[in-house]
Design brief:
CATH class of the largest domain: Alpha Beta
Structural class: alpha/beta
Number of helices: 6
Pfam families: Methyltrans_RNA (PF04452)
Number of strands: 11
Family: Belongs to the RNA methyltransferase RsmE family.
EC number: 2.1.1.193
Largest sheet: 6 strands, parallel
Strand order of the largest sheet: 8-7-6-10-9-11
Mean pLDDT: 91
Distance between the termini: 22 Å
Radius of gyration: 20 Å
Strand content: 25-35%
Subcellular location: Cytoplasm
Low-confidence stretches: none
Helix content: 25-40%
Keywords: Cytoplasm, Methyltransferase, rRNA processing, S-adenosyl-L-methionine, Transferase
Length: 222
Amino acid sequence: MQFVYHPKAGEKQLSVDVRAYEHLFKVRRVAKDALVYWRNLEDSLLYAYTIRDIGKKEAWLELVSFSELPCVALKNIHIGWCVVDPKIVEKTLPMLNELGVHKMNFVYGEFSQKNHTLDFERMKRILINSSQQCGRSHLMEIELFSSLQSYLIQYPHSYVLDFSQNVLEKTEAISSMIVGPEGGFSEKERALLKNQPIVGLTCKTILRSETAVVAVASKILA
C-alpha cells in the first residue's frame, strides 16, 4: 500500500474509523506516533500524518508535512466502453486504473444488455483500493451515457476500435477511444460511426470486450 485514502486528507487533524482501515491498524499493526502517508485523490499532494492516539473504534492523526507528488500518466486519455456484465467491468477497472486511464465513459450500446446496471459507489471503492496499491494520485473519473449517439455528441472526435487495416500506433495523439460491447456495434451504430477515425490492433483474433479495452489502454499509455 503506497498511501491511505481519506477524503479530508490535508486537514491539520484527522479522526479515522479504525474498522475502516483494518489493514493499517490490524494487519500492519501501525502503532502510536508512527508516520503514515495519506492522499485525498483530488490534489497532487502526499500528506504525512503521525498517529497521536488509537482507540477501539477511532484513531486521531496530526498533519506533519506534505509534498507535491503527482502520480499520473504522461498521456491523458479517456475510453468509452459499451456496457458489459458489471462483474467484468469491476474486474477490469483496477488494470485500467493502474495503466493511468484518465476517465471511463460507460455507454449503453445496442448490444449492451439493458439489465446491466453499474454500481458507481462500488466502482469508486474499487478505484480507491487500486489507487492505494499502485500509488495513483487522482481518482479516475466515471461517466455514463444512455446511447452511442449521446456519447458522440459529447466526444465528436473519438476514435473507434474495430477491425481495420489502419493499425493503432503508440505514437498517435489519441485522447478518446470508443470500444464496443460483446458482439460489437450494430448496423445503426456503424452508420453513426462512419465519419469517425477507425483503428485496429495488430492481432487478428476476435478479442473479448474487456481484453480490447486493456489492450488499447496499454498500447497508448504503457
